[in-house]
Design a protein that fits this description.
The chain is 68% helix and 0% strand. The chain is mainly alpha-helical.
Length: 183
């Protein structure tokens, strides 16, 4: 008696180039955002990275340290968001969302995330007061209050904007009608 064999149905019938464009394009945008974001944070409060983060690869140069933390911090969120966008935007029988369309929409979420972080940081700079519960701050010096507030705000808003981005992909696929080729 032979074992029961189920038919193989690919979860995602997609060209590798398209898959790579979406996943690594999204991760690349998240990485670039993290690099720019960490470059100014390390100048506001270097101790945010040198004292309150574990040493990273023996890097002493602040610019390189911020770059390395940006790389490390972007891998998980960037690749997860890219993979989720790939499957939500391209798997199944509904009309697919083009990679270029996804890559044009994502920067808006990044912009909203950074704007929220900067506004929160400006509020702390102006008032000198922490925005979040005190337990979330490792130190109460003004520079660290500013950078930690910016970071925490960006984590929250980034998560929400990522979820909105994925929701937009699902909505877009439901609203789009298949294109019919006419001779």
């Amino acid at each position: 008696m032979s074992p029961l064999r189920l038919p193989m149905v690919p979860l995602l019938d997609e060209k590798r180039g398209v898959s790579y464009t979406i996943v690594f394009g999204i991760w690349g945008m998240v990485f670039l955002y993290c690099v720019l974001h960490d470059q100014y944070l390390i100048r506001i409060a270097p101790e945010h990275f040198t004292e309150w983060h574990p040493p990273l690869w023996g890097i002493g140069n602040l610019t390189l340290l911020a770059f390395a933390w940006a790389f490390r911090a972007s891998i998980g969120p960037g690749l997860i968001l890219g993979l989720a966008a790939l499957f939500l935007g391209r798997a199944g029988s509904r009309p697919k969302v083009a990679p270029g369309t996804m890559l044009k929409v994502l920067p808006w979420g990044i912009l909203v995330t950074e704007a929220a972080g900067l506004l929160a940081g400006a509020w702390v700079w102006k008032t000198g007061l922490p925005l979040f519960p005190l337990e979330l701050y490792p130190d109460f010096s003004k520079p660290l209050l500013i950078t930690q507030t910016i970071q925490l705000t960006c984590y929250v808003v980034g998560g929400v904007s990522g979820a909105v981005f994925l929701g937009w992909i699902v909505w877009r696929r439901k609203e789009c009608r298949p294109q019919v080729d006419t001779p």
